[in-house]
Every structure is written in C-alpha cells, then in structure tokens.
C-alpha cells in the first residue's frame, strides 16, 4: 500500500509541475521600401524578402513606407531590417555611421545608367538659365517630390548651383507625385518650370518646351541593412552577391519596381567611397 501511495504522489507531482515554456518564434526580418504611384513595390521586394528568409532560415515580412525619408526613419528606429531606398534615402541614412550598413547595389548596364538623369524644362520664353534666373520670382515650379532623386533633390541642387533657392525665389513650388504628372502640369499650363527624370522627358519631348539643365548620371542607391545581433548584415551581403545564381527572380522583381535598374542582372558591392550628388554635365 505504501509503494502504491508513493507512486501516486510522484505522479501527482509530475502532473502539477509547470510545463516548459514553448520556444519563442524568431521575430521576422522586415524587408521594406517606399511607395511610388503605379508601381507595386510590395510585389517588387517580395522575392528579395523570401530569398533572404530562405538563406537565413528566418521568417520575413514585407513593408512599404510612404516615402524614402519614412523608410530611413523606420530603419533607424529598428522597425526595418533591410531597406531598398532611392539615392535620397541612401544619402539620408549615411551608411557606415551608426548602426546602418550599405549592402550591394544592382549593377545597371553602363548605357542605361547613363540615361538616368534629371532635367529642368520650361515653357514659353524661358529658354536659358539666364532667363530662368531673371524671371524666377514670377514662375511656378513643379517637382516630382522632395524625396525624389531625379525629380527632387538632384534638380534642386542644380537650381541652387544657379543661385536659385526654390522655396524662396520662385512664385510657388508644387509636388506632382510622379514624373509623368510633373511633365503634364507643364504641358497643361499649371506650371512654368518642371524638374523630372530625363528618360520620361526624352521619351516624347512636348513641343514648345525648352530644356535648361541636365544632370550627370544619377547612380542607384545601394540597399541598406540595420546592424543588430539578429540581423547578419555580412551574411546578407554575401547572399545578395549570389542572388543572380541562386534566385534570378530577386532581380527580375526589382527591375519591375524600379525602371532605373534597367537590365541589371546581378548585385555588386556598394562603392567604397560615399555616393555623392550628381552635378550638371
């Protein structure tokens, strides 16, 4: 009887003992980019996220932020682990300072890279930089957006090099939201001066407009990585350099989301020296 009672007590203690806590599932890596009209950016980075998750045996989540600036802010707050920025976002992130590292960048063929430039075009009698400088106070300027490279900060830098401060020296400054919309605003008379991507303008230059300025080629911004114990930026760098062989759909989807990537097939290491603002040719 004593043996049976001992066995009963032991069994009861086992049943009453707390169960071991289940292993915590790893937090997903967040692979993110910024939104752009008429481009499904979530679809464009999904193969990249899936590829990195597969290589790292890690769950992943895709996110699309409202702008390049919002993307970099989220990266700094630790809410994004791998980012696909534009050049403006890359420059804002200042990779190498703090906890943000530059990852490889799509290798755009030289002939296509040469076409990714910014232009400033104007209506009517504004046919020279001198005329632009003289008449700026009465002119309406339209940009694509403050965060845009070819339709924003690159041509703004060009205007400043001419001695013009967009917010102070023009009658008004508006953001069209896309390159096509910026050009359309000029054609329809809603603006007098527009800054946009050269390839959009070159595709069908409207009659009656004057090209005043054209930038040097604008390089793509390398991808970005948040350096953390749970985010192996060095491994991610190596995986991206192998992506063309391991999973060509990664670059194919990025090309669909970013026309400026042209026919890029492979990633190459980020430049050893910081990317700088392109000037006029």
Task: Please provide a brief summary of the model.
The chain is of the alpha/beta class and 281 residues long. The chain is built from 13 helices and twelve strands.
Description:
With about 280 residues, the chain is α/β, with parallel strands linked by helices. It has helices at about 1-15, 40-55, 70-75, 85-95, 110-115, 130-135, 150-160, 165-170, 180-185, 200-205, 235-240, 245, 250-255, and strands spanning about 30-35, 60-65, 80-85, 100, 105, 120-125, 140-145, 170-175, 195, 210-215, 225, 265-270. The strands form three sheets. It has a five-stranded mixed beta sheet. A five-stranded mixed beta sheet has the order 8-7-9-6-10. Strands 5-12 form a two-stranded antiparallel sheet. The longest helix has 16 residues, at about 40-55. The chain is elongated, with a radius of gyration of 26 Å.
């Amino acid at each position: 009887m004593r043996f049976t009672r001992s066995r009963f007590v032991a069994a009861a203690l086992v049943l009453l003992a707390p169960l071991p806590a289940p292993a915590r599932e790893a937090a997903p890596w967040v692979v993110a980019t910024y939104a752009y009209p008429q481009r499904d950016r979530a679809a464009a980075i999904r193969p990249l996220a899936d590829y990195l998750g597969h290589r790292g045996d890690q769950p992943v989540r895709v996110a699309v932020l409202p702008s390049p600036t919002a993307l970099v802010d989220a990266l700094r707050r630790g809410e994004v682990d791998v980012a696909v920025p534009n050049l403006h976002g890359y420059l804002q992130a200042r990779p190498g300072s703090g906890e943000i590292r530059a990852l490889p960048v799509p290798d755009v063929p030289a002939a296509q890279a040469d076409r990714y430039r910014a232009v400033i075009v104007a209506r009517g009698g504004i046919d020279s930089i001198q005329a632009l400088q003289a008449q700026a106070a009465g002119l309406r300027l339209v940009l694509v957006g403050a965060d845009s490279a070819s339709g924003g900060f690159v041509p703004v830098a060009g205007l400043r090099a001419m001695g013009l401060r967009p917010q102070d020296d023009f009658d008004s400054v508006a953001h069209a939201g896309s390159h096509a919309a910026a050009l359309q605003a000029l054609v329809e008379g809603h603006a007098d001066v527009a800054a946009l991507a050269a390839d959009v303008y070159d595709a069908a230059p409207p009659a009656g407009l004057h090209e005043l300025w054209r930038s040097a080629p604008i390089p793509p911004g390398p991808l970005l990585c948040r350096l953390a114990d749970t985010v192996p930026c060095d491994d991610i760098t190596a995986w991206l350099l192998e992506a063309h062989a391991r999973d060509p759909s990664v670059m194919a989807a990025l090309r669909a989301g970013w026309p400026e990537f042209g026919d890029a097939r492979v990633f190459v290491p980020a430049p050893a020296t910081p990317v700088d603002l392109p000037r006029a040719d």
